[in-house]
Each structure stands twice: as C-alpha cells, then as structure tokens.
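Researcher: I'm preparing a figure for a lab meeting and need a structural model of a single chain. I don't have an experimental structure, so a prediction will have to do for now. The sequence is pasted below. Please return the structure as tokens so I can convert it later.
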Amino acid sequence: MRMNPVFDGLPVTVFEVMSRLAREHDAVNLGQGFPDDPGPEDVRRKAADAVINGWNQYPPMMGLPELRAAIVTHYAHWQSLTLDADSEVMVTSGATEALTGAMMALIEPGDEVVLFQPMYDAYLPLVKRAGGVPKLVRLTPPHWRFNEAMLAEVFSEKTKVVLLNNPLNPAGNVMPREDLELLARFCTKFDAIAVCDEVWEHVVFDGLRHISMLAIDGMRERCVKIGSAGKIFSLTGWKVGFVCAAPNLMRVLAKAHQFITFTTPPNLQSAVAYGLGKDDGYFEGMRADMQRSRDRFAAGLSSLGFPVLPSQGTYFINVDLAPLGLNEDDEAFCRRLVADHKVAAIPVSAFYASDHVRSVVRFCFAKRDATLDTALERLANVLR
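Model: Understood. Here is the structure written out token by token.
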C-alpha cells in the first residue's frame, strides 16, 4: 500500500520516545512539556459548570462570541493590539490546528516557507504536506538570534510564508524588538506573510514583555498571530487556540478551519473567556512562580557542573554539553540519562532538520519543587 510519504517516512516523535523510556525506567520525566500542577481551580470549575448548565451542542464555527470578545479585550490590555472580534478573531482546537489550517490556507505547491531551527516538530511536516518548500535558518546557542545576512540567504521572490515561534521552544529565548523589525522588513520587501506561533506569550521572565509581530510596523495586514489557552493557564490538554489576523487573511483561514475541526468544545471556550478576564495578579503570579522554578532548577544544575543556558521564557531550560568535552552527543546523553540515572530530557538536535546542533539538552522545569529536587538528586552523579 502506498501512503503519503510526508507522514509515512516520519519517525516516532522524540517526545513519545523519551516519555516511553521514562515509563520503562520509572524516571522523572522532564522531557515532555507539561506542568504537574492541575491548573487554576476557578477556571476548571467554570468549565465543569458550563458542561452541566451550559450549551453542549455545536458552538459557532469562529468561536463563542464571549470568547472572541475576551480575546480582543485581553490583547488590547496586554499587548496594545486593536482587533475586531467579528472579523479578526477565530477559536481553534489548539494552536497546532491553527498552524495546520494556516499552512493549508496560505501555501500553494512550490511556495517557499522560511523556518527557524530549532523548531517545534510539527512545522516541517505541515509545510511539506501543504506543498511548501522549506528554507531553513539555523539558530545556535547561547542567544539563538538571526541577522540580516542569514535572512538574505533564505528570502526570495518565491517566499510566501515565514513561520516564527516567539518565545522560542526549545531555545527559551524571547526575541527583541529589533529582530522582529528586521524580519518585518524582509516580509514587506518580499510580500511574505508571517505566521507567528506566540503560544508562550505569557510565559516570559525577568520583567520581559512579549511583543507580538502583529504590532510591528508594516505587519498588521500580513501577520497571523496564534495563541494558546493551554499555555496561558497550564491546561495543556484543553487544546483551545486563538487566531488573530486581518479580515483578508482570516477569510481564508476560517475556510480551512471549517474543514479540520470546525469547532471547539463550548464549555472549554466559556472557561477560557472567564480566565482571560482574570486580573493582572493571576498572570504576574503565574510568571513569578514559573521564574522561581526556573531559578531553583538552574541553580541546582549549575551546582552539579552543568553549563546552563539562559531561559527567558517557555517551560524549558537548556544545558550545553559542549564545554564538558563528553564523548557523546545530546541524543546519546539523553538515553544514558534516562536509563542510568532515571531522568528524562529531550535532545535539542531533534528540533533540527539539517545541520544539527548536537550538544544541547532540554529540561522542563514547570514542575513541583519535589519533582525538580528528585531530578537534581538523580543528576548528581551524571558528570562524575
């Protein structure tokens, strides 16, 4: 039987591989990116109440009006964006569905798509399945930044879409305004659309504030902004995504969405609408808690001799094995780590399609103190 080669040739995702090994070795799983906290109780109670007392039939395809209005108000407050709830906002069943729909709606076979690696593992197969030709920009530690020369190598008259993840998983960096403005100039020059995966927009540290590409000069009519309630509220299983774009883009994005999932559970939408309206204290407190966990785990890793890279956002912190002179790459190190020391991590080389960086290992620190402390105890002998 012939299958589609894009998917037939894909390996099992590294997250599944490492999580399986974590189960087999009874390891602390710091590989897959989810918190071991249940999420805000008041938001969860709103979802439960909406199931019992609310509407459980098909909601509107574009999303509940109350949620679209809440998204508009939320982004006006936090990112100074002015959006129209009726024509510029759509709700999807997670950010990955939003990304899938965007690739299907915007790319024609042969169009070139600029991708920054390391990258979320769904990007490349989605681009290829839509018929796009990937043009890769290689980012490297410790700062994971691009420059004008790097962009000039990949942009051309065939460039249709730029797919940008900011803050960047797995690198944990938050792109400064000057980098976004540089990318915007290339998008304008080559008439390209920026599809911006901004799911980590609230998970930023050290007083940083997320800047949306949608707010950069020249990008209002050529940017698709994608967000995630799962990341904002640490409810990763809910799969409620947000899409914001100008009406000329949203018109086509909505047509792709209607033939993928069509809609999203209404009780979860109601709960997210409530959650987006929470006062600033919730969002600031969430960041402070995550930053404290980051600092706790980073200090522990450093005390054990691991070279820790900066983490400005996301749930993740990286170590660069290169200065240690170990006779193994990141994948071999992670396999040894889970088998011999019972801690699961992710080799960052898995986020590259070519010219891999093979020395960086990613840990998820969005865990309870006891989980992180147990992991550090097990890591104590790794470098001895």
